[in-house]
Amino acid sequence: MSGTGFSEVPFVETSQLYGVHATQGPHLTDVRDHARFLRLYTTHEAVVRAYVRRLVPGRVDADDVMQEVALVLWAKFGIFRENGDFRNWAFGIARFEVLAWLRDRSRDRLVLDGDVAELIAEEALEDLTSLDQRRTALADCLEKMPLPQRRLLLESYQADCKIQEVAVSSGRSVAGFYQWLHRMRRTLLNCVQQQVAHFSCH
């Protein structure tokens, strides 16, 4: 299958395909619904695709599953709550579509057994959620740092960074700068761990 092409997806056909009554889904004439769907989908597509890729062997097959996920999301978008969690909703539909794909190919030796696949699907979702929490925590912790320190730290991790030059610009020797960098990394790590622990408690 090719790209999703939402602007060309006729709602009546997708609703019939997935057994969703037309009153349950958005109408293509409602530009606001269409724009809102595209905004939410493009925001979360990468992480949903990563989830699918962990479970479906082969990029082409994973793309096919993602196509189905996108069509189902659009067909059922009318029953999605205005302030609902689109990401979790998309993960739920992706999980269903992945398991359906695996069941359809259960005789293929390269495809996981259904029970095993379901267990891995749960673990993959937990891993992605944990990774997302760590990224959010890191962004929060960086935001809390004084701006000069944050800029210096981020500059140190640029691909074309030369530590000697960064050290000189910071007014430190190279050895002193490495010591400072080590302390900043430890501080960030502690902050991230505390933030993730906070997420886990809520």
Q: For the record, give the distance between the C-alpha atoms at the N and C termini, rounded to a whole number.
A: 40 Å
H/E element sequence? HHHHHHHH
Q: Which regions contain 5 or more consecutive residues with pLDDT less than 50?
A: 1-29, 108-112
Large-scale geometry: elongated
- The CATH homologous superfamily of the largest domain corresponds to RNA polymerase sigma factor, region 2, helix turn helix motif
Helix content: over 70%
Total number of helices:
8
Whole-number count of domains: 2
How many beta-strand segments?
0
CATH architecture of the largest domain: Orthogonal Bundle
CATH class of the largest domain: Mainly Alpha
Taking all Cα atoms into account, the compactness measure Rg is 23 Å
The average pLDDT score comes to 75
* Main sheet specs: none
Derived structural class: mainly alpha
By CATH, the topology of the largest domain is: Rna Polymerase Sigma Factor, Chain: A
Protein name: RNA polymerase sigma factor
Family: Belongs to the sigma-70 factor family. ECF subfamily.
Domain RNA polymerase sigma-70 region: 40-107
Pfam family, one: Sigma70_r4_2
Written overview of the protein:
- Residues 40-107 form the RNA polymerase sigma-70 region domain.
- Belongs to the sigma-70 factor family. ECF subfamily.
- It comes from Aureliella helgolandensis.
- Residues 137-188 form the RNA polymerase sigma factor 70 region 4 type domain.
- This protein has 202 residues and is mainly alpha-helical.
- The protein has two domains: 26-112, RNA polymerase sigma factor, region 2, helix turn helix motif (Rna Polymerase Sigma Factor, Chain: A, Orthogonal Bundle), CATH 1.10.1740.10; 126-201, Arc Repressor Mutant, subunit A (Orthogonal Bundle), CATH 1.10.10.
- 71% of the residues lie in helices and 0% in strands.
- It has eight helices and no strands.
- It has helices at 11-17, 31-55, 59-75, 86-104, 114-144, 147-156, 163-170, 174-200.
- Helix 2 packs antiparallel against helix 3, helix 3 (59-75) packs across helix 4 (86-104) and helix 7 crosses helix 8.
- It is elongated, with a radius of gyration of 23 Å.
- The model is unreliable at 1-29 and 108-112 (pLDDT under 50).
